[in-house]
């Protein structure tokens, strides 16, 4: 009962999404926005590095499954926070979550050709 009241209260407080917000929120839109997020030690965005493994959109919530270049990455909390903040700025998004996973393991082969060129790997 309490959960239903909380949900009902949330729905009353948040304005409904308009048609433009519903149609512009897509995996492509999310990935484009995430191209603004960087590992502070690497001058290539997380999408081009191949760190983003998946995007899930449910209503006004977006979830991102991603990895990092190494499990010991000292910037993991910073990067995850940056991604979550960027997602919340998208029109139509009221909440977002970032899940860091280690399988499959990231390898340089996941990088885009442009990222490989920028980092001198081609």
If you had to describe this structure to a student in words, what would you say it looks like?
With 122 residues, the protein is of the alpha+beta class. It has a domain at 38-122: GMP Synthetase, Chain A, domain 3 (2-Layer Sandwich), CATH 3.30.300. The chain is 37% helix and 16% strand. It has five helices and three strands, in the order αααββαβα. It has helices at 2-13, 19-24, 27-34, 76-88, 113-118; strands at residues 52-58, 61-66, 95-100. Strands 1-2-3 form a three-stranded mixed β-sheet, covered by helices on one side. β2 (61-66), α4 (76-88) and β3 (95-100) form a beta-alpha-beta unit. The radius of gyration is 17 Å and the shape is globular. The termini are far apart. 20% of the residues are buried.
């Amino acid at each position: 009962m309490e959960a239903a009241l909380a949900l009902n209260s949330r729905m009353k407080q948040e304005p409904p999404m308009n048609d433009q917000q519903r149609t512009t929120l897509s995996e492509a839109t999310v990935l484009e926005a995430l191209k603004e997020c960087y590992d502070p030690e690497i001058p290539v965005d997380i999408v081009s590095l191949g760190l983003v493994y998946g995007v899930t959109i449910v209503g006004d919530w977006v979830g991102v499954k991603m990895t990092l270049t190494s499990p010991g990455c000292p910037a993991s909390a910073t990067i995850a926070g940056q991604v979550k903040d960027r997602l919340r700025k998208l029109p139509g998004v009221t909440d977002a979550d970032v899940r860091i996973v280690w399988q499959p393991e990231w390898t340089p082969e996941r990088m885009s050709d442009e990222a490989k060129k920028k980092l001198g790997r081609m």
